[in-house]
């Protein structure tokens, strides 16, 4: 059993131990931390790790008297840096166990009472991440970690809520201590902090929390309530049968429930699918983010008759807007694009920071955007169970219609947090019994293919 309950860390020391050099330098530059003696040692060590030797020289010169009283501490921190650099060189050569030993040594030489294995692991993983090396399985030893990592991280995150790596560290930590829903929420926060798209490497790491999570403790009564008379899968079935697409594209596969409806040639895209069963032969699964997928496959898709596209990936507005723009660019004049989750049942479900199991995020904004900016489209909202569907036809194939306005639209909606009543109440959506809904859909979409 590790004994480390007497190791109290301030937030900067935590960043230093976890090897988050850039954040440490940012923090000590932004706020006047650097005047405190011990903290300045950490700042200098971080600058060295980042290769900013000129800066180190200047700072050592200008803070001579502060550092003189801390000579031993500074020497230890610098020796630690040497071991850390050796460890990184060994990592790049794939000498993993030697790299791990040097990384541990970089913490041992600091002379702290006991550094918990978890902190050693955080530093090791962080150095790999900084080198762009893939994440490897984390330490799975004692979870009885009394070290106050969470409160250190929470303090830091209050100071710098925009720092992605702090949220990543917290998500990793929460996963390690078995707090999976918190970890998942934090990964979702990482996605929201990276509006240009969360990299696949982070998705791979968040998958573990996604799989392990058994649910969210909703903070308000009724926040998981859902509505809609006709199940969304029944509507997808109907669309497949009636439109009889030549090729089906799906963004966001998860367990494969919607993808398995496809009878035609189909591609499903998801950076972290968790399939329950094998897919049938007509279906290809591509483990990738939708952004990366469109970037590398758009050309091939334009050669196909992509007649039906289902967008159900990351439930954040800027992601969905990009998915729509990219989907439209590979569509043809008969294509129908279907977007899930346009109707949150309450404001908790629509929050960008996920706190509920039923989570639509701010996908409703895509419906709002299309109503305002694309009056040329045929938009048909359906009061589907559980969180509504939007079916779109009349697409302008091979044109990036909203691409040039992407940035301005995203910034226009950036601070819009409250969901307009019309989306909560599903105003104007096709509703009623299954047969009525299908009849109305047939009137609007059913004949598309045969008309062409
Ligand atoms: C709600 S689930 C999809 C459910 C599925 N369509 C169904 O109805 O059976 C959302 C999925 O989107 C995936 N996802 C998240 N970000 C994504 C991205 N950037 N690109 C593609 N898929 C993404 C998640 O991994 C998750 O599996």
From TrEMBL:
GO terms for molecular function: methyltransferase activity. It holds the Pfam family Methyltransf_24. The keyword Methyltransferase applies. Keywords: Methyltransferase, Transferase. Gene3D superfamilies: Vaccinia Virus protein VP39. GO terms for biological process: methylation. It comes from the Bacteria. Coiled coil: none annotated. InterPro entries: SAM-dependent_MTases_sf. This is Methyltransferase family protein. It comes from Marinimicrobium koreense.
């Amino acid at each position: 059993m590790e004994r480390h309950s007497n190791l109290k860390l301030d937030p900067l020391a935590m960043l230093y131990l976890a090897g988050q050099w850039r954040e440490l330098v940012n923090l000590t530059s932004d706020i006047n931390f650097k005047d405190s003696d011990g903290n300045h040692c950490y700042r200098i060590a971080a600058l060295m790790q980042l290769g900013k030797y000129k800066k180190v020289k200047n700072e050592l010169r200008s803070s001579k008297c502060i550092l003189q009283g801390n000579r031993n501490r500074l020497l230890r921190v610098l020796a630690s840096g040497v071991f850390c650099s050796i460890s990184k060189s060994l990592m790049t050569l794939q000498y993993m166990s030697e790299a791990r030993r040097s990384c541990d040594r970089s913490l041992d030489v600091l002379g702290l009472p006991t550094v918990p294995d978890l902190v050693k692991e955080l530093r090791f993983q962080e150095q790999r991440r900084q080198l762009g090396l893939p994440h490897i399985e984390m330490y799975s030893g004692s979870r009885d970690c009394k070290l106050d990592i969470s409160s250190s991280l929470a303090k830091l995150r209050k100071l710098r809520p925009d720092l992605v790596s702090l949220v990543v560290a917290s998500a990793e930590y929460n996963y390690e201590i078995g707090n999976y829903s918190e970890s998942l929420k934090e990964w979702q926060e990482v996605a929201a902090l990276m509006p240009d798209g969360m990299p696949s490497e982070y998705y791979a790491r968040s998958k573990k929390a996604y799989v392990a999570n058994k649910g969210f403790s909703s903070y308000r009564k009724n926040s998981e309530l859902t509505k809609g008379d006709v199940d969304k899968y029944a509507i997808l079935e109907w669309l497949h049968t009636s439109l009889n697409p030549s090729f089906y594209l799906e963004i966001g596969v998860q367990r494969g429930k919607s993808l398995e409806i496809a009878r035609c040639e189909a591609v499903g895209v998801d950076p972290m699918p968790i399939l329950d069963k094998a897919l049938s032969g007509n279906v290809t699964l591509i483990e990738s983010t939708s952004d990366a997928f469109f970037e590398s496959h758009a050309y091939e898709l334009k050669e196909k008759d992509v007649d039906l596209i289902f967008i159900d990936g990351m439930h954040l507005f800027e992601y969905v807007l990009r998915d729509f723009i990219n989907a439209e660019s590979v569509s043809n004049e008969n294509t129908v694009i279907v977007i899930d989750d346009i109707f949150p049942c309450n404001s908790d479900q629509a929050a960008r920071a996920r706190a509920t199991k039923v989570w639509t995020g701010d996908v409703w904004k895509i419906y709002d955007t299309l109503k305002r900016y694309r009056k040329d489209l045929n938009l048909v909202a359906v009061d589907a169970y559980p969180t509504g569907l939007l079916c779109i036809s009349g697409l302008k194939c091979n044109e990036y219609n909203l691409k040039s306005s992407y940035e301005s639209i995203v910034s226009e909606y950036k601070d819009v947090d409250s969901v307009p009543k019309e989306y909560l109440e599903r105003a104007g959506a096709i509703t009623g019994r299954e047969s009525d809904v299908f009849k109305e859909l047939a009137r609007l979409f059913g004949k598309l293919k045969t008309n062409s």
